[in-house]
DNA sequence: GGATCGTCTCAGCGCGTTCTAAGGTTCGTT
DNA sequence: AACGAACCTTAGAACGCGCTGAGACGATCC
């Protein structure tokens, strides 16, 4: 993506959060923090991170429950679980619940970074990935789309935008979220680039009499749905 | 692959060896066992495995030393290290020594299998002698290409670049990826070597009225496709 | 020492991509 | 129905990416 990958760090221990935040920020990631499971779920919805570093042991909603809720909401975000105890059971339960990998505390930052890289490579850009929605396909490797038997070439911005939609189908994406992900704008600078690019995309993927896929939600943003 | 992938399991604990051997054999791998570091080095030389599952704690030559010797002998085999103690230092030293990944004992077989798969995917080095794409052939041994009945001589850099494309057809390779693979740059300074070499390649493999094979993807990189 | 080959730098330019801006259209609210 | 806000559409300006040709530099061979 044009902008730095977002990572959400959920841990009730502020020291862990700080270490992880600083290290990942130094590596060029955009880091969002949450001090509890509740806050984690909220921030995940708000920022659409590519990966969540999630402590398993937390008061209130613990890491396992956060994972369960994210997954049952259809969120496929990469989850790296931090387990305090070194017990097979914990790790297995974590993976069964829907986490993608785990790391046993205490860990060095280098270990965390290695797992983060591996996960992002595996999850965010798996080889041969083809995203599908309705009769629309997005070939991530080739950076091209397919619909109605034709191949659709996309520019970088068009691709990034469509990728965001395809990764969050049926979910209303607000203007702010889209702008942050595709254009890296922190600030609304009064621009209609987004509308222009939605039009470009529609022109390419909704040719002729094909059904509309990118719908406008007035006052909110856009959704990918039938 | 024409033959089953070979995996060498080095551990002084026969129970571990048995569990791992049975599981991996069930998955279709050819498993070779060794009960000590010395035997491990010997079997590695003899069988040229694609991956070594290596216990770190062994009497005599331990896992770290085995790794060191393999690496200093130029062996790039994938190494998955088994560490008994859950101490950061052990794991980090293991990775620094040249291991590719580690697993903390006790582990479930599923965990082991996941790591083995990931490692093989990452490290696998397909040594095809002649790569083909469309009407273009790349003879890896002779380091020359063929198209339209003629033989195309390539310089080292041209060959490496074309090899990368041929190994990832129809996949957009970003500038960074190409630079890392072909030039091993940390890309500090801006350079357009890549563009220059793409031009050289195009000049050689897309002579006259032949169709374009290396396509530019503006803002991203290049793709090999029809 | 000269010639050839391979690698890489540099600067100018063309053109695709991105974005702005202005006017038009639709929608929701009253 | 009327109004303003939100969104759509279009054209074209501005930007910068990638292409190109020339040549500097070092290595190798004669």
Question: What features would you highlight for this structure?
Answer:
homodimer; alpha/beta; 5-stranded parallel β-sheet; 4-stranded antiparallel β-sheet; elongated; DNA-binding
What does this 3D model show about the protein?
By secondary structure, chain A is an alpha/beta fold. Chain A contains eight helices and twelve strands. Chain A has a five-stranded parallel sheet, sandwiched between helices. A four-stranded antiparallel sheet of chain A has the order 6-7-8-9, with helices on one face. The two termini of chain A are 25 Å apart. The relative contact order of chain A is 0.11. Chain A binds chain B through residues 86, 88, 91-92, 95, 104, 106-108, 110-111, 114, 118, 122, 127, 141-143, 155-157, and chain B through 86, 88, 91-92, 95, 104, 106-108, 110-111, 118, 170-172, 217-220, 223, 225. The structure holds a DNA duplex (30 and 30 nucleotides).
Question: Which descriptor suits the 3D outline of chain A?
Answer: elongated
In the predicted model, the low-confidence regions of chain A spanning at least 5 consecutive residues are none
How large is the count of helical segments of chain A? 8
Largest sheet of chain A: 5 strands, parallel
Using DSSP, what is the number of strands of chain A?
12
In terms of quaternary structure, the protein is: homodimer
Mean pLDDT across all residues of chain A, rounded?
A: 89
- Give the terminus-to-terminus CA distance of chain A: 25 Å
Q: Name the structural class of chain A.
A: alpha/beta
Order of helices and strands of chain A: EHEHEHEHEHEEEEHEHHEE
Radius of gyration of chain A: 19 Å
Largest interface: A-B, 21 and 21 residues
Q: Which strand-content bin applies to the residues of chain A?
A: 15-25%
What portion of residues of chain A is helical? Answer: 40-55%
Adjacency order of strands in the biggest sheet of chain A:
2-1-3-4-5
């Amino acid at each position: 993506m044009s902008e730095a990958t977002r990572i959400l760090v959920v841990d009730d221990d502020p020291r862990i959060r700080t270490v992880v935040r600083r290290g990942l920020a130094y590596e060029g990631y955009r880091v969002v923090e949450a001090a509890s499971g509740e806050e984690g779920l909220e921030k995940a919805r708000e920022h659409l991170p590519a990966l969540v570093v999630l402590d398993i042991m937390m008061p209130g909603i613990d890491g396992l429950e956060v994972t369960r809720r994210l997954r049952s909401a259809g969120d496929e975000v990469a989850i790296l679980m931090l387990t305090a105890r070194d017990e097979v059971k914990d790790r297995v339960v974590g993976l069964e619940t829907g986490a993608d990998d785990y790391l046993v505390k205490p860990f060095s930052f280098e270990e965390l970074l290695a797992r983060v890289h591996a996960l992002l490579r595996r999850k965010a850009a798996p080889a041969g990935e083809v995203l599908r929605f309705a009769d629309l396909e997005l070939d991530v490797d080739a950076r091209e789309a397919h619909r109605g038997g034709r191949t659709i070439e996309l520019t970088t911005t068009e691709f990034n935008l469509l990728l965001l939609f395809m990764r969050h189908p049926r979910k209303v994406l607000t203007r702010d979220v889209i702008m942050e992900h595709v254009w890296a704008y922190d600030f609304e600078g009064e621009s209609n680039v987004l509308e222009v690019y939605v039009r470009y995309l529609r022109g390419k993927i909704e040719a002729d009499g094909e059904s509309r896929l990118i719908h406008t939600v007035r006052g909110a943003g856009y959704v990918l749905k039938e």
